[in-house]
Amino acid sequence: MxxxxxxxxFVWFEVGRCDLLxxxxxxxxxxxxxxxxxxxxxxxxxxxxxARYDDELTIHTSGKLLSSARIRFDYEIRQTEDAxxxxxxxxxxxxxxxxxxxVRLPVAVRKIFG
Length: 114
Hints:
- It is a single chain.
- A hairpin with a 5-residue loop joins strand 3 and strand 4 (85-94).
- With 114 residues, the protein is α+β, with helices and mostly antiparallel strands.
- The protein has a 4-stranded antiparallel sheet with strand order 1-4-3-2, covered by helices on one side.
- It has helices at residues 8-23, 28-33, 107-113, and strands at residues 40-47, 57-67, 70-79, 85-94.
- 25% of the residues lie in helices and 34% in strands.
- The mean pLDDT is 95.
- The protein has a single domain (8-113), classed as Thiol Ester Dehydrase, Chain A (Roll), CATH 3.10.129.
C-alpha cells in the first residue's frame, strides 16, 4: 500500500519524547538509573494524512506536568516538504519506582514541565 503502518507513529512519538528530554538535560537512561520508570498509561493518535514510505517527517514534541506523578507529552508529526500535519497525538506517563509503585517525579523534571 506504500502507506506507513499506523503503529509506527507511536514509535516516532517515543523518538520525539526522548529527543525532547535530552534537549532539556534529561535522558531516559539517567531517569531509570535513578530508579524511576515512566510507563505509558494512555496513548492516542489522530491520523490526519497518510505518510508514505520515504516521506521526510518532522516531529514536534512538548510536555506538560499533569500532577506530581504524571506527565503528558503532545506530538505533532508533519510532512517536512509541505508542513501538512500527518498526525497528532499524546501519551500520558505515570512515575513509578522499580516495584511499580507510584512516586513523585524528580524536582528537576517537575520544574521543566510545571
